[in-house]
Amino acid sequence: MNRRLLLGISAVVVAIVAAVAVVLVTRDDGDNPSATLSDALSDEQRALIERAEPSPDCPDEPVAAPDDESLVALDVLRVDENDCLVAATEYVAPDEVDDRRAELLEEPGVVAAGVVGEVGLDEEDDRRDDQWSLDRLGAEEDSPDLPWPDGHGAVLAVLDTGVDETHPDLGDAVLERRHYPGEGEHDPDGHGTHVAGIAAARRDNGGIIGVAPRVSVLDVPVRLKDVNDAGPSWPTGLAWAVNHGADAVNMSFGGPIPAAPDVEELQDLEVEAAAVYFAVSNDVVVVSSGGNCGPSPLTDCADVNQRQTPSSLPGVIAVGAVQDDLDLAGYSTRNEDIDLVAPGGGDLFTGVLSTYPGGGYESLQGTSQAAPHVAAAAALIRAAAPEASGDEIGQALLDTADLDRLDEGDREGRGVGRGFLDIAGALEQVLAGAPPATSPPADRTRTAFVRDDELFAFDGAEVGPVRTIDPGTAVRWLDWTADGSLLVGADDGELFAWDGSALVEAPCGWCSESRPAFLEDVEVEGATGDFVVGMDYAGTMTWYDAATLDEVASTTPTFPADAVGTKTLLGAVGGQLLVHESGGAQASERVWLLDPASGAAELSADVMGSPQAPIAVAADGAQVAVVTGYGACGAEVTVLDAAGLTELAVAPVPEDLILDEVFFNGEALYATMEVAASDCSALQPDGLWRLDRGRWQEIDESPIGARPLEGIDDDTAESWLVAGIDGQGGFNPPLTGDPSANELGPITDGPWATPTTTEVPWP
């Protein structure tokens, strides 16, 4: 699995949405929970994991928990000389954890070592006498026949309290068990047997029927709160499951993520992130319960809607729970980590009936019960389409989830992700070979905005958080790949790249001096690819791989002999770079087109003064608008033909106004402006303007920011994303589906967007 759906919901206050990702990027030891999860592994750690080859012959020797309860379990993941990823546990004194961890990380092959936090079961208790959950998923009521394949040939790993394999309804289901010293009863709690039955209970034996009644189960007992105290941690169990051929994994448990994790907690998360990365990079679909920390008064979480692992980790499909009437259950966590929902039972009366130790049956409820419906669906799809990748299966589960089946009020809030599980629809998409929906159509607008200190992105269908912005730091520049699969940007001190789920950041010493530019499929110093490039005041250009932000080259452009002024990079247009020259001997100042391959500048055009605002480039790359002047007051906008820098229009900014941003809407040029104070600083917003026949005409005085959108996946094909005077974000005309006004919130900076191919009328 290589990435989630672009701009899928799943991050700081999120999800998911989200979609499936395996990219875990360079570490950021700040206090941002999103960075904690998505930045947990370094490039070296990922490369080491990618070297590992899953095999049941890989060593696995769980260590018995010692009688000394003061000792701490330190989990270690390493890749040995045979390219096996080996999971092991050591028990050390609390004051020796840091030293021992440091020693381990010095050993060749060690990926991560840390103390895995305590996790508990995501369940609620009650009873019910039938399997309404299968009815809601599309099975004929009371019929043992299912409208999808039975999962024969696929392997589902159940990481839980264990499975009572003697249950009549689980007769031949358990393929293999990971035993551990001192394990005692195979399911001392009943939770694991219940989860296994939802997924894999056999048909035609007088009991219930599972979602995938012929799938094979790997029984992987793990250490859970108050259960299996001597059991192994879940990351070591996950590594074992991958080595033993799991196609999908269910993890119906979770532990809270600290709001401000310290260094040790960040290090411990590496073990969890590494285990998930090992799974998803080997085509295993990883599913987890999303948590029972909803607003119901019956929940006992420390914080309502708190985030937890493993459901928040990149690569994990997080599942929320609905009742039999398909309303979101009160206990189900409502945050943006949730990717989709499935039957989990109601708050008080309606549970999900499944197997229980001793040959019995119980009705339980919780996101624990919702998750195995999704995990079983992933397994049966793999059985029906053995060549399908984990990414294709996970993406199909998300693409086909149905919001319309849920209560309208639930659709407008968090906690339902992409909607209600549609097994038949997901199977149909995989069998049809539908490509993962990671690249929106070329004519779909991508946009981004800041809410408080968080950058969010919108792809025409969903809002997703990108990164936290340090207070007092502004977003200076944003751009997107043509297919929308990558967002790149910069603030005053850092570059960043976001692929819809994983965030990469890199320090940028020149970012406070000039804006970067983004070029796709260009040649630089013999290398061809997608690059972010910046120029310092000395004229040196630094090139970065757009996806990783690794520095790949440093070049010095060549200008004619009379171009002696200071150079400032303005951006990219038509596959070339646009550079401003000022302070030279010539009377007027100029902009130059610079060829990235040769580094030579040949074409130029005269402009008035230095840059006053970011440039705007039309969607087809044929026009570029440059804002220059000898100060913010009295600036003018020059519209140039991008191919030859021929002047198309020159428009002075109206008196007593300051131009904030310019952008193309089709071939028309729009701008947001502000009233100028006596010292030429911005006094107050002055709305939206349009350039008509060389003169600026005010369209509406109310927006402080606005961008036109096209290609929206909604009944409304075109709209404007608007930040009003009060800052509240909204769509005009309104969208009939997501995202809701709550998801937009107050827009404190932006929005920014890719230009539309045709003009979207102002409503």
Automatic annotation (TrEMBL):
Residues 151-406 form the Peptidase S8/S53 domain. Keywords: Hydrolase, Protease, Serine protease. Gene3D superfamilies: Peptidase S8/S53 domain. Residues 754-763 have a biased composition (Polar residues). GO terms for molecular function: serine-type endopeptidase activity. InterPro entries: Peptidase_S8/S53_dom, Peptidase_S8/S53_dom_sf, Peptidase_S8_His-AS, Peptidase_S8_Ser-AS, Peptidase_S8_subtilisin-like, Peptidase_S8_subtilisin-rel, Quino_amine_DH_bsu. The active site is at 160 (charge relay system), 191 (charge relay system), 368 (charge relay system). SUPFAM superfamilies: Subtilisin-like, YVTN repeat-like/Quinoprotein amine dehydrogenase. Residues 729-763 are annotated as: Disordered. GO terms for biological process: proteolysis. It comes from the Bacteria. Belongs to the peptidase S8 family. This is Serine protease, subtilisin family. It comes from Jiangella alkaliphila. The lineage of its organism: Bacteria, Bacillati, Actinomycetota, Actinomycetes, Jiangellales.
